[in-house]
Write a structure and sequence with these properties.
It contains eight helices and twelve strands. By secondary structure, it is α/β, with parallel strands linked by helices. It folds into two domains: 103 residues, ATPase, nucleotide binding domain (Nucleotidyltransferase, domain 5), CATH 3.30.420; 136 residues, no CATH class. The protein has a six-stranded mixed β-sheet. It has a four-stranded parallel β-sheet with strand order 6-5-9-10, sandwiched between helices. The chain has a two-stranded antiparallel sheet with strand order 7-8. A hairpin with a 3-residue loop joins strand 1 and strand 2. Helix 4 crosses helix 5.
Amino acid sequence: MRRLAGVDVGGTFTDVAVWDAERGEVEIAKVLTTPDDPTRGVGEGLAQFGPDLDAVVHGTTLVTNALIERRGARTGLITTRGYRDVLEIGSELRYDTFDLFLVRPDPLVPRPWRLTVPERVGADGAEVVPLDDEAVRAAAHRLADAGVEAVAVGFFNAFRDPAHERRAVEVIRDACPEVTVCASSGVAPEIREYERISTAAANAYVQPLAGRYLRKLVRELDRPLLVTLSDGGIAPARVAAEQPVAL
């Protein structure tokens, strides 16, 4: 790559830095952020450097802001029978362990949109209760009819064997192709159901917003787009759109 652009979209300004490998120089520009359509500000900033850019690396707090401001999609959860309230039960961790009057934030998924289906995987990954495809299909239709835009699938012990979650995702996509869906085993494949399922719920909550934004940005840039992750790495826009909670 000869010229690589880095773009950071902030609440007030959009900053652009372009590295020229041949000259060993860095050029910078600052433009006003366009909150109604952040891609416009990105385009205005990059336009100052001409069309000769090989790739763009993009950092944004779009997902973080959407979570903090509760501006995500109407999200549902399909989980193992008996685990409907896992998002509210949570864990023993608190902002202030000794505050007896602590008010916890509402879950990203309201209780009416948290549905359960028959299925169970044991701690060793062996199937205990087969997945009921028709129950998943019925739950998907029920959520779609309620206006839900995104669904998180989070089954107990799915980190040991994600087969049930993957099948449920297939059923949901077939039944309601207009609904965005993600599985906890694909987002946070680790032990402890609350941490895994709450991460999947957060991912589903921002997935439609991030997907629309990144797809539009890719179309308008017409060049490779990489997105910075919260761990300091980067990922192709397609991957970032599927797992925006990692941004």
